[in-house]
Structures are given as structure tokens and as C-alpha cells.
Design goal:
Layout lengths: L11 H22 L17 H18 L1 H8 L2 H15 L7 H32 L5 H19 L2 H11 L12 H40 L7 H15 L2 H11 L3
């Protein structure tokens, strides 16, 4: 029609491009106005080449190394190995595959380890850590005192045959008393002793469940139902037996008492 002016409206692509330009402009303006803080890490205490500063750096490196090796130390010198192996064997004996999950098994093993090792940690704290924090003893003496309760715990669970094996392999002299045994010999001997004990406990756990599997398999074979997996019928009976005898109470109680 005549006398009317037609105003062209931008389409959706044009509006999208305009909006993106505005957002980029606002972001660049905000980035320019917000300064980033400077982060620096420095160690004081003397000139650059002073012995005090060098000792501090070495201590920090030692602490970081110990923290990185903490999981391995937990596995090697505590009751964790026996507990987690027995719980894993129990799960396989039941035939529940991934029930309970690995996270629950490892978490239970960790907390049982904390419970079992609490008296040892209390001795280490009283005899080594507290005197060291109070500046009554040196760092070397604190390490020596801290290794005493840990050695005593490991020696109670280690077999003489395993100790003799690693003493012979290391070509060390026969120790006159238990305190003379070095950790490089005691730790691997303790590990294989713990594995042997865990497998012995696992074998005793397997026996009743194997009997149930054999009985179910024999019944299915006599009925001619060879295509039906026996595990499908034996699993409910295993769980029923485990619940009736209060299996978790028996297993956990036996595990904890085996360290006393």
C-alpha cells in the first residue's frame, strides 16, 4: 500500500550473531577488569645456600615421599592384607560375584584395620610422636621408638620359617633377639605369613558352601536336569545358611580375634 514505510527486521541468524558479539565483548571487558592473583611458594629461614633451608627442603621431600607411599605402607605393616583377602574369599565362596561391591569390601577392611591397629598406634603416639612434638627426643630416636610397637605386632603374626627364609636370602646374621630383626627382612616375611593365614581362613570358609554346591549338583544330576546351572539353586541356600548362622558376626569376630 502507498504511504507506508516497510522496516526490515533482522532474522534469527543476525540476532544470534549480534548476541554472541555482545557476550564476547562483555567477557573481554570483565577479564580486563579482574586481576589474577600472583601465587608464589618460597621457603625462608636463611640465605639461599644455608644449611637450615636445605634441611627444610629435604624434610618436605621426605614427607611427600612418605605420603605417596602411605597406601603401600598400610598394606605391608598392618592387618589390612589378611582382612581384605578373607572378605574377598568369602564373597567368592558365596558365589555372589560383585555383592558386596569392591568399595564396601575395601571400606570394611580399612575400618577393621583401624580397629585392630588402634592399640599399636596409641603406643606409637605415646612413645614416639608426643615426645618428638614436645622436643624431648630427636627425629631419629622418634623413628626408632615408633618402629618398636610395629615390629612387635608383626613378629606376633610372622612365622619363624618365613623369617628364616628372608634372613637367609638377605645373607644377614642370625639375630640374637627379635629387636635385632631389620624391617627389610621382617616386612616381606610378615606379608607371606599374612597371606598364608588368610588362605587358611578362606579354606575353612569355603568348606560348608562347597558341600551345598555338591548336594545341589547331585540332586539336579539325579533328576536329569543337567542344563540347569547348580549355582542358580545353591545361591539362595548359601545365603540362607550364612544368615542363619550370623555369618558376618562370626567372620568379623574371628578375624579380629586372630590378631590377639
Amino acid at each position: 500500500m502507498k504511504g507506508k514505510t516497510v522496516v526490515a527486521r533482522p532474522g534469527l541468524p543476525a540476532l544470534f550473531l549480534i548476541g554472541c558479539c555482545l557476550l564476547l565483548a562483555a567477557g573481554s571487558a570483565g577479564a580486563e577488569t579482574i586481576p589474577l592473583p600472583n601465587v608464589s611458594l618460597s621457603i625462608g629461614g636463611g640465605p639461599p645456600d644455608s644449611p637450615a633451608k636445605t634441611a627444610t627442603v629435604i624434610q618436605l621431600l621426605f614427607i611427600l615421599t612418605v605420603l605417596s607411599l602411605a597406601p603401600a605402607i598400610l598394606l605391608m605393616v598392618t592387618s589390612f592384607t589378611r582382612v581384605v583377602v578373607v572378605l574377598s574369599l568369602l564373597r567368592h565362596a558365596l558365589g555372589t560375584q560383585q555383592v558386596p561391591p569392591n568399595q564396601i569390601v575395601i571400606g570394611m577392611a580399612l575400618f577393621l584395620t583401624f580397629f585392630i591397629m588402634t592399640p599399636v598406634w596409641q603406643k606409637v603416639n605415646q612413645e614416639a610422636l608426643q615426645p618428638y612434638y614436645n622436643e624431648e627426643i630427636s627425629g631419629d630416636e622418634a623413628m626408632s621408638r615408633a618402629s618398636g610397637p610395629i615390629k612387635s605386632f608383626m613378629l606376633k603374626q610372622t612365622r619363624e620359617k618365613d623369617l628364616a627364609l628372608f634372613v637367609q636370602i638377605a645373607r644377614e646374621k642370625r639375630p640374637n633377639k627379635p629387636e635385632d630383626i631389620s624391617l627389610r627382612v621382617l616386612v616381606p616375611a610378615f606379608m607371606i605369613s599374612e597371606l598364608k593365614t588368610a588362605f587358611q581362613i578362606g579354606f575353612m570358609i569355603y568348606l560348608p558352601f562347597i558341600v551345598i554346591d555338591m548336594v545341589i549338583a547331585s540332586i539336579l544330576l539325579s533328576m536329569g536336569m543337567m542344563m540347569l546351572p547348580p549355582i542358580m539353586l545353591s545361591l539362595p541356600f548359601k545365603l540362607l545358611l550364612f544368615v542363619l548362622v550370623d555369618g558376618w558376626h562370626l567372620i568379623v569376630g574371628s578375624l579380629v580375634q586372630s590378631f590377639h
